[in-house]
Write a structure and sequence with these properties.
By secondary structure, the protein is of the alpha/beta class. It contains 14 helices and eight strands.
Length: about 375
């Protein structure tokens, strides 16, 4: 017998949001961990807000919404508000009831900026990796480090001489600029859109871009990021950030650190050994322009051990973190201006990357 389509809806619904989400849905595990971390951050939230005035968007709900934006690759905050309006799963995860009004996109962005400026992202990431269910998944002895470029929210047209000696016609809101053949350097030019952005290229034959550099420290047991930084892009930023991340997020005893060939620099290796860090760094022994073999500080004392080859193999997993963060979480080109806000956004995306992997890791662990 053919069923008849019911065009009129019901006035009331007696099914709770909690019952509409499957018991084995991955977001359930993620939400439990995120809620525990947010409870521990309650005192930090209290210090951020005034006791007077109108109530803002609850920071707990705002952070859950930002995590959903990264999980499901929602391009903009306006689209995120649209999804929250009709997506039952989104409403459940954020903590909104079926009849609760969704926030205005501009109001949401204003409240989000307050969280970014208060370094809540770093506290969220630290809370996730130190959670009682996550802590046992981490290695405390073996780590890897790497960096990636984050394209700045600034065009090449905005990269102009610092002394203001620009003779080109600047009429109109978006004038044509012909800068081909000009020598443009970071010490003589600066972006008028984001002064902290730096002109940088990834390698020979690659185009130069205005960008920042993101850095991550990964533990080697399950490939979870435990530390994140964003710096200005330059030739030494990766090594300087690696030393700071190691000092910040590792224990004082002997550990190992895996890295690619860009870190095979004499001064960096010596600094690691002074900090009791065994450098499991890929050897860069290519021929120089003069035809001589490049010298390396990574010798047989390190490479003869089986752990060296293991670190080199596991180290590549940090590229998976960067890949997910830049493609899924939309961090390939930032939407923010200023290093500090970009670091907060990048850190939140890294935290989301960790959370995405936890349901499977916790389900597989005894």
């Amino acid at each position: 017998m053919r069923g008849q389509e019911q065009t009129s809806g019901h006035l009331f619904s007696y099914i709770d949001l909690e019952d509409r989400v499957p018991p084995n849905h991955p977001l359930r595990t993620i939400r439990e961990i995120v809620n525990d971390v947010l409870v521990s951050l309650s005192s930090d939230f209290e210090a951020m807000y005034s006791r007077m005035g109108r109530p803002s968007i609850p920071p707990e709900q705002l952070l859950r919404a930002l995590l959903l934006q990264a999980f499901y690759t929602v391009r903009s905050e306006r689209q995120l508000m649209e999804q929250l309006d009709f997506n039952i799963l989104f409403r459940w995860f954020v903590g909104l009831g079926m009849d609760d009004r969704v926030w205005d996109a501009s109001t949401f962005c204003h409240n989000r900026d307050r969280l970014l400026e208060a370094d809540v992202s770093a506290k969220l990431l630290n809370g996730v990796v130190e959670h009682k269910r996550v802590r046992r998944l981490l290695s405390r002895d073996h780590f890897s480090v790497d960096g990636t470029l984050i394209e700045a929210w600034a065009s090449m047209k905005s990269f102009r001489p610092k002394d203001g000696d620009d003779n080109e016609d600047s009429g109109g809101s978006n004038p044509d600029r012909d800068f081909h053949g000009q020598k443009r350097r970071n010490d003589t030019h600066q972006s008028t859109t984001d002064p902290e952005a730096r002109l940088y290229r990834k390698g020979n034959g690659k185009e130069s871009k205005l960008c920042f550099m993101g850095h991550a420290l990964m533990e080697n047991r399950n490939g979870l990021a435990v530390g994140v930084m964003v710096t200005q892009a330059n030739g030494t930023a990766e090594r300087v950030a690696a030393l700071e991340l190691v000092e910040r997020h590792t224990k004082k005893g002997r550990i190992t650190l895996g890295a690619d060939k860009a870190y095979d620099v004499e001064n960096f290796v010596e600094n690691l050994r002074k900090q009791k860090v065994t450098p499991h760094i890929a050897v860069q022994d290519h021929l120089t322009k003069t035809g001589k073999r490049r010298k390396t500080k990574i010798d047989r004392r390190t490479t003869r051990h089986p752990g060296y080859q293991t670190s080199r193999r596991v180290r590549k997993r940090i590229e998976e973190i960067f890949g997910w963060t830049k493609v899924q979480a939309g961090q390939a080109k930032t939407k923010f201006i200023g290093r500090r806000r970009i670091e907060a956004s990048f850190t939140l995306a890294i935290a989301a990357s960790n959370l995405m992997r936890l349901p499977k890791l916790l389900g597989a662990s005894p």
